[in-house]
Amino acid sequence: MKHQYFKYIGTVILLIAFAFTSKAQQTVVNGTVTDATTKETLPYVSFLITGTEKGGRTDADGQYSITISDDHTQIKFSYVGYKSVVKTIVPGKTQTIDVQLQSETTQMDEVVITAGKKPKYKNKDNPAVALIRNVIANKPKNRMDHYDFVEYKKYERMMFSMSNLSDKFKNKRIFRNYKFLFQEQDSTKIGGKTMLPVFQQEKLSNNYFRKSPEKLKTIIVADKRVNFDERFIDNQGLTTYFDRMYQDIDIYDNNISVVSNQLLSPIADGAPTFYKFFITDTIQNHNPKLVELSFMPRNNTDLLFEGKLYITLDGNYAVQNAYLTVNKDINLNFVRALEAKLDFEQNPDKRYHLSKSNLIVDFGLSKKGGTGFTGERTVNFKDYQINKPHPDTTYYGSAVPVVVADATKRSEEFWADNRPEALSATNLKVYSNLDTLQTIPSFKRTMDVVTLFFAGYKDFGPFEMGPVNTFYSFNSVEGFRLRLGGRTTPALSKRYYFETYAAYGFNDTKWKYFLSGTYSLNNKSIYAFPQNYLRASFQRDTKIPGQELQFVQEDNFLLSFKRGENDMMLYNDFYRIDYVHEFENHFSYSLGLRKWNQTPAGSLYFASSRDNNLIKTNSISTSEISLQLRYAPHEKFYQGKVYRTPLVDKYPIFNFRYTAGIKGVLGGEYNYHNFMGSVDKRFYLSQFGYTDVTLEGAYILGKVPFPLLSIHRANQTYAYQLQSYNLMNFLEFVSDHYASINIDQNFNGFFFNKIPLLKKLKLREVMSFKALYGGLRNENNPAVNNSAMQFVLNQDGVPITNSLSRDPYIEGSVGVGNIFKLLRVDLVKRFTYLDNPMVSEWGIRARVKFDF
């Protein structure tokens, strides 16, 4: 027994000794290759262990690494246009050998050079263009969807930092407690020498692709990120916003999404029309042989890349490496530098898949310098397997990534074992540093002020007051209006939420108020996706008939400024019960019960005709039930304090709403059925920008007074509103059936970029077209039915409310966007119904839009 014990111990010792001996025999060599004169790193330099076939190439940063087990003592570096260099290596050790290559020069006799006309670039008979056309022709077989099945593991890391910080900034008094947060890096790198990390996230996922029917299933197995106090920042919304700005780069797509813009890929089908291509190198000693293809935009301000591609000459014409950047004059706001590097690895069938991508974007108000922000996203792909089918259950479910239960609870040991590349010591500290930062009182006070300024709410723990931009406003009916309100937060309860406000108009001397109570059915914030809640509310307030706003409060101070006469308003009393249920696939439905009482205010009145006399009615009461369906596949949004803002993408959004009025229930006076449907879709047009299209239609069954008809969205403010008719007056048109189309075209500077002096201003062209076709059945039209509620007359006895006749309402606009990088100004023209009272044929409207 004792003998067996010592034999076991001896075996373990021998195994350990063998392991250390084997490790000691390994030789690890790494380093960086640079140009001896310029000191710039050299990508894709070939290196070879002398006397063997073992070697490789440096990456896009000029870095290399190789591990060998034999006793070889030399490594050779070679690069077209440079002298080869041989370095000595020490067997059995890990060593760093940095290499500087000298450019080759040839001694020549004296020659006389005379200036000649620079040949004009052309695609015809251009070998570089012929090569890129071969790449384009072979794209289908080099894409992932060429295979029936693909699976891989994916690692993502997102880092966001304040960048290009000066010593003066770093030494400010406000940062005296935060010195531990700053990072130092090589001053030549994007972002400058000193950076201040403010966000970091890592994700590990398993991904399964099936070609038919096409499906990509993603299972997130680990998720680690900086978590900020939810009172100040929505962490999930922040992640969604960064994911939208930094999407995966697929070089084989015609368009590549970067910072919410689409840039034409250098191997897009139409790339030779917009890019210039040059063969700048041939790498002979690589298997397969590679061609370095440099490219640049024909117009520097267009949304295009410039950089280098490394193309295989093995018949596949695949991209093996890519370096993408943008011209300094590109019509892209707030972007000071952009750099993307893509590395590909070979599949068993000799084709290539993306193995690593790195995207860095440096943002700043000024491109010439100063403090800014730098975002870096690194993605690694490993364990790439092709045509290995899984059971159908693997691909079931929606395309929304599935997060495993303990994904956010992975240990440090798990991350250390599963990261494809170890994090630097400084990046590892980012999580703990930012956790510490949030405990510092001065930081909390700063975030409190920032939240009040941007979100409009002042946090008091379980209750927050706001939004501040509604505290003061004015209109012709209420005059000077004061409002004060707020709502509870998850700090009070994650199940129960209450919201309230009170407002007072000094002209009409009336109080308005709102109170709601909401119960969360999924124990999540009622503002978080997916929503599932039950709400009861009461509201007594004013409303302008026909004013529909998106993501803006109606009593926002800036909307107090209006054109023309707009003293027709409603006092509304709403008693409501609503149930909302969203699903992970972005389908949602809501059920509602509403008692609604409308009382006219200002010059608005309700009246019916009897014996040629107007008989006025004090109010209209209705009781309604409603069902609303919404489907927004792949929708992403940023969650704000009051509402969430969708991040518009290429996927359509479908809406359907049915509302039924019930007479005799809870005081309801009318029976009717209202059906409404709409589709919203953005079409990306590559270099021609994008087009937003909305189709909408509705039909109302039943005899109803005009306040219950479809009051078409009008706009009497000076702001350009995308979904409203900007030269239509409030309450000008009503319908019981209608169809409409709204087209908004953004050219992203495609034409202005071609005008020599104008292109320096980075302006962008916009156009819009809006058409509305509808009408009233005789039973709802007071012009042919005296028993219908009469339209409002102006002082001259002319109706200010109309039904649409055989002609549609049409308006259009042309405009200039990106003025001072923030402002869009449209010249709007109204084409029809110009004889209606108090209308304008022309108008100028402005819209503030922050966009890259």
From TrEMBL:
By its UniProt entry, which Pfam families does this protein fall under?
A: CarbopepD_reg_2, DUF5686
Show which residues constitute the signal peptide.
1-24
Provide the alphabetized UniProt keywords: Signal
Q: Does the keyword Signal apply?
A: yes
Cross-referenced SUPFAM superfamilies, in alphabetical order?
Carboxypeptidase regulatory domain-like (SSF49464)
Keyword Signal among UniProt keywords: yes
At the top level of its lineage, which domain of life is listed?
Bacteria
Annotated InterPro entries: CarboxyPept-like_regulatory, DUF5686
User: What name appears for this protein in its UniProt entry?
Assistant: DUF5686 family protein
